[in-house]
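Feature request, filed as a ticket because there's no other form

It would be nice if the structure record came with a short human-readable summary line next to the tokens. Right now we just get the raw output. Example of a typical job, pasted below so the devs can see what we mean:
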Amino acid sequence: MGATKIVAIGKPGPKLEKKLQIGATLTTTLTGKLEEVDFDATANVDAVLDYIWGETAKAALSGIILKRKNKSQHLIWAEIGALAGDANSASASLLRQANVVCGCGPGSWTFPDLGNQLSTMLKAIAEKGLKADLWFGSWLM
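Raw output as currently delivered:
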């Protein structure tokens, strides 16, 4: 994607630290109450890959949107998973304050679209050497 700054957000510990080893340039640590987390490092990001959703995403959305210097700067929010819950109580007025594009998954694209892009994605993965920990149940593969 051409990112020069990658901020990983998560609870303190080895998993968050590992993100620095695999390409993150900064981390934002979720400690204590979500509304007290300092999202300064994330304020001007262009894209978020959200595997968490729930109230964590609400806190991150607020932290990013309210601290952005340029409110009209696009924020691509790719909602991928919902580990912290399938819903949150993000304010509609908060979303109206920002230029947010949201969605990732069937519905935001069609399966024919995926088929058309799959060879490009696989080629990029092969060329860039994608590395990922794969979890199946409680087993790390």
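Something like this underneath would help us a lot:
The mean pLDDT is 83.
The two ends are 26 Å apart (CA to CA).
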